[in-house]
Amino acid sequence: MTSKSRKNITVKAFKARIQHHLNFHAVDLSHSIDKKAILMAVCSSVNEIVFDKLQSTNIRRHERNSRSINYLSLEYLMGRMLSNNLHNLQLFKTAQAATKELGFEIEDIFEEGHDLALGNGGLGRLAACYLDSLATLDYNAMGYGIHYEHGLFEQQFYNNRQIESPDEWREYGNPWEVCRPEAEQEIPLYGHVETVAETDGTLRKVWHPGQIIKGVPWDVPIVGYNCETVNVLRLWESRASSHFDWEAFNAGDYQDANSAQTQAETISKVLYPNDSTAAGKELRFIQQYFFCACSIKDIIRRYLKHHDDWSQFADKFVIQLNDTHPTIAILELMRLLLDEYRFSWDNAWQMCKQVFAYTNHTLLPEALEKWSVELFETILPRHLEILYRINEEFLNGQVDKMWPGDTAMRRKLSLIEEGQQKMVRMAHLSVITSFKVNGVAEIHSELVKQDLFPEFHKLYPNKLTNVTNGITPRRWLKACNPALSDLISKKVKGDWAKNLSLLSTLTDYAEDKKFQQQFMQVKRENKVKLSEEIKKLTGVSVNPDAIFDVQIKRLHEYKRQHLNLLHILALYRRLLENPRLDINPRVFIFGAKAAPGYYLAKEIIYAINCVAEKINNDARINDKLKVVFLPNYRVSLAEKIIPAADVSEQISTAGKEASGTGNMKLALNGAVTIGTLDGANIEIAEEVGDDNIFIFGKTVDEIKALNRQGYDPVSIYNSEPELKSIIDWLDSDYFTPGKFGELSAITQSLLNDGDHYKVLADFVSYSQAQEALDKAYKDQAGWAKMAIMNTAMMGKFTSDRSIEDYANNIWSLDKNLPATQAVKL
Ligand code: Z57
């Protein structure tokens, strides 16, 4: 099929295809069609086009032999696929009309789809946005990850507490993947290393693994927006290999054979639910190695299919490490080059230094991965030997040259941390090997240079750099907010979803009364829709004319959902003291999952739910305040909340949020940010201007100064009467009748445990910014102008810009020809 006939596919033809697939799924068309069946039939109809495009993309790629970017990530938070694929294929309206003729609203069909939740939060969603942009910009890109049987857990609330249950995303099959048995891999684990003397006297290392696991690839097609490209996300599933103990099986020892299989399948069973903390579990380490080894072997297989020597390898492949999670890929490439392909040490090391680049996503010490030497020794003995040699050459070479005889410096920079238990520092290995290391927002990248890796920055002055994160405007505006998209398209000429900076023409209308009214009318319609969803999910009725104030992100102390909670309590208290207090009605909307093992995060959820219950049922405050915590926050829920948000809460302790990306999504949809000078908030403020954002709180330097002076939260508690009474209130049984001290874990962390994230230090400033915001909302035209300016000035934060930054400054990708000039097939 040519691109022309694709574009012209009629409603009639598309409907016929859906019917064909319904037939194929043996659905009796004389009866009412089940929603799941129609979903599957629509997906199959779309897939006919998608896989056809995938084929021609592959042929084009092969002909051009272009350089490829290989993105290694433990997480991909894809969300639902159908709506996005329809938009990217320009098929949305056609599919909408075709399904309508079959008696369905397309939105209802989308609701039947399950999120692909193979990630935790920002890092995983960033990977998904980058895949969208890589395809849209027609870069030769491949994503590699794990085909988890269970993605991020589902969350419910029971008695105000979080309950987790397993994510069953493949329960009824996943239409968006295809198995590729021809590319499966065998992965060794455990065992020992033998030194063998060759006939010429040289020594060779042979790893005799104790176990072999099979990696089965599943390919998810990634459809570019309004272009010919379809790339692939390749996800590895673990299975018992054919080297599996059939002897034991045949000898009747079925139990043993079966348990080996169970063990093998355990590797890709479940995603670790921690965000910004290292799990430190043996199975997690094996997951990392398993997927890196599969991916590196697949990359080599793809290269050797078209080349008969290694001379072009570093020209044709660049490998991006998404955080330190895939760092072990470095040692696996070294091992294969040395032991399988018989490279000299120097040649193998040169090769590795040319192909890897690393993105750092956090400064939090608890997230910086370390694995015990002991674990390496048991599971990857050969990799440990290679690591030791890299370390030796690094310390005796570069480190000794820069800091001769400085043993303290050697200890500090070594790949091995000495101590009770020797640990391998994965970030150090990534930094010394990679040709570029980037942070994810300007301030974060500066802190990486100045505070996290100052010595590495001195050793390699051109290595550390910045690429500010971005989000795809296809999912995060065009698909999730059709009403605003239509309004924008009336004013903005050209394909703004492909060139987001075009939105800046909206600044011309920021003070246009009619446009302001239309813009706020769209916002109100979105708020009405969200109100219905809130009612459905929580039973709480909210007023669409209230301010919708949104904090949606993982639950973490550094993100300070409890600072938001303290301010809600302040408002509640003020209203009880003066029921006629002149504030805008406000609905506080939370969405957040807590890692199951993160005690305080779960206590914060519990506290917010308890306070919400009290406030929502208190007739004295005349519905001026509502608090809702929406359960099971995930990509598809974000797509409903974001278009309806008036206020975006981005209130992390300065220096702690590497970038944030939810901040960008909310601003793009016309929410006004209240935030600290942290992560990408700083760059958002630069774009929208100080008049269109509410900035509060201590700066990074002020937080550092506080730490130097010695921070004393108790003195703040004692000197701020309102804050004191709120904290005491939370400590009483007011929100948990009859149960005293039920919420004291939080107050203790603030008062007795040092208030690590400076909640009390920022409270007064936050409360003042909230007052200014409330006042600003009363000026309807002024608020509309701010909201419009936010949408208009988000051009910088498209993930297309981020990907062009990576392509130009890190990956050196050749710009592919526009698809219209592509070789006709
Ligand atoms: C994660 O979601 C992030 C960093 C991590 O180290 C891990 Br583990 C998970 C987040 C940051 O916290 C955000 O600030 C950032 O925007 C996001 O990664 C994408 O870079």
UniProtKB/TrEMBL annotation:
One of its GO terms (biological process) is glycogen catabolic process. It comes from Aliikangiella marina. The keyword Glycosyltransferase applies. One of its GO terms (molecular function) is glycogen phosphorylase activity. Pfam families: Phosphorylase. Its EC number is 2.4.1.1. The keyword Transferase applies. GO terms for cellular component: cytoplasm. Phosphorylase is an important allosteric enzyme in carbohydrate metabolism. Enzymes from different sources differ in their regulatory mechanisms and in their natural substrates. However, all known phosphorylases share catalytic and structural properties. The modification N6-(pyridoxal phosphate)lysine is found at residue 665. This is Alpha-1,4 glucan phosphorylase. It catalyses: [(1->4)-alpha-D-glucosyl](n) + phosphate = [(1->4)-alpha-D-glucosyl](n-1) + alpha-D-glucose 1-phosphate. It comes from the Bacteria. It is an enzyme of class 2 (transferase). Keywords: Carbohydrate metabolism, Glycogen metabolism, Glycosyltransferase, Pyridoxal phosphate, Transferase. Belongs to the glycogen phosphorylase family. InterPro entries: Glycg_phsphrylas (IPR011833), Glyco_trans_35 (IPR000811), Pyridoxal_P_attach_site (IPR035090). Its cofactor is pyridoxal 5'-phosphate.
